[in-house]
Design brief:
This protein is 71% helix and 1% strand. It has 407 residues and is mainly α. The termini are far apart.
């Protein structure tokens, strides 16, 4: 397969995604891991139809795709549909991501020390921190996917959906900090490590604020798309040139636009349909980058990381049940309803694989993909049981005396 055929295939996949996911429920798994698996089969690790040289030539395309996905996530951050999430849900999502990511990073660091992996402390920090960042979030698509299919309505479904829309901030800040540990040598004026994350966030906020000013008046479709594409590509290009996190800069660009523009709702409505068409080719390329021989102890590291994420979600579920009567009604394992990870987790893994080629980046990507796959078996099933136990699913409503139809 040559580069032209691969490009045509990605365009066709993007086109398929543009109508497969435009309905109410869409198609496919919420995390999109099936496209990661397809990419792995086509990549150097299996059939080798897409070689390493070809993947390297598509790196700019991958950077643009990752940046646009992060921009869409930032534009939607803190909103569940058309409603802003409540402060309590925002706090739960942020603290939950901090606790989960910290637990996974600590467990991975301990495993690296135990197995004596990593040539330098920096490599261990990068790997443990990258795995923690990739495993800390819950994909907002999974909760919405189950809630819509179960036709669930109630306080628990609303709370879990809001939490899933409010846990992306800290992982992307962590990515910016980790990328700063190995700054680019191309900068003439040397800067302290602490300055690089601030520059990353500043690029996004500055460009987002400027874009919000450009669309502050009447929202014309063609001019608005030109502004969105222009500022996003500028943020991606600047951060990629400085070897900073394109994900973080694009995320804050979207946040700034949503906060400062009076057309935030319309902007989210414009950008949301583009997320899946961009996501599917990105997941395919992420799968092609997967290398299961990245580390001699990869299986053990993945088991430790996923196990730590599982335990952290159980603990968070206990805390949620302690403060919320409706969550207590759903059972002590309600936290496992948030086990699903997806696009952002794999995007973080792919960003690490591109930024830190070798065993560090490849290991982060593989663990992110395995965590998303494991979450598909646990998260949606547990969420359905929790909604049934809370009496919020359609099946539970039909079985209840109030929801029973008259004879």
């Amino acid at each position: 397969m040559n580069a032209v055929l691969l490009l045509m295939g990605l365009l066709v996949l993007s086109y398929l995604g543009s109508f497969l996911f435009t309905g109410r429920h869409g198609a496919g798994l919420p995390s999109g891991v099936e496209y990661v698996a397809l990419g792995f089969l086509l990549g150097p690790g299996a059939l080798n139809m897409v070689g390493g040289d070809m993947l390297a030539s598509f790196e700019p395309v991958v950077q643009v795709a990752l940046g646009w996905l992060a921009f869409a996530v930032g534009l939607d951050f803190g909103y569940a549909g058309d409603k802003r999430v409540r402060f309590g849900s925002l706090l739960m999502g942020t603290l939950g991501a901090l606790f989960t990511g910290g637990a996974v990073a600590a467990a991975t660091w301990g495993a690296l020390r135990l197995f004596d992996l990593g040539t330098t402390p920096t490599d261990r920090i990068l790997l443990a921190g990258g795995v923690g960042a990739a495993c800390s979030e819950t994909t907002r698509h999974a909760v919405r996917w189950v809630v819509e299919r179960q036709k669930a309505r109630g306080p628990l479904a609303e709370r879990l959906n809001e939490i899933a829309h409010a846990d992306d901030l800290l992982p992307l800040i962590a990515v910016a900090v980790l990328f700063a540990l190995k700054p680019t040598p191309d900068v003439v004026v040397p800067l302290a490590i602490r300055d690089w994350p601030a520059i990353t966030v500043g690029i996004g906020l500055l460009l987002g604020g400027g874009a919000a000013l450009l669309v502050r008046s009447e929202l014309k479709l063609d001019e608005t798309w030109a502004v969105l594409f222009g500022v996003t590509l500028l943020a991606i290009g600047a951060t990629a040139r400085l070897a900073l996190s394109t994900l973080t800069a694009s995320f804050f660009l979207g946040m700034a636009m949503a906060a400062l523009s009076k057309h935030g709702r319309e902007l989210r409505g414009m950008v949301a349909p583009t997320e899946r068409p961009v996501l599917l080719p990105a997941l395919l390329l992420a799968g092609a980058h997967i290398d299961f021989h990245a580390s001699p102890k990869l299986a053990l590291l993945a088991a430790v990381a996923i196990g730590a994420r599982l335990v952290a979600k159980v603990v968070l579920g206990w805390l949620l049940a302690a403060v919320s009567p409706v969550a207590r009604k759903a059972g002590g394992l309600v936290g496992l309803s948030l086990m699903s990870s997806g696009a952002l987790a794999i995007s973080i893994g792919l960003a690490f694989a591109l930024r830190f080629p070798g065993w560090v980046g490849d290991t982060v990507l593989v663990i992110a993909a395995l965590s998303a796959t494991f979450g598909e078996f646990v998260g949606p099933a547990r969420l359905r049981r929790s909604l049934d136990a809370a009496g919020e699913s359609e099946a539970a409503a039909e079985q209840s005396p109030e929801g029973a139809s008259p004879a």
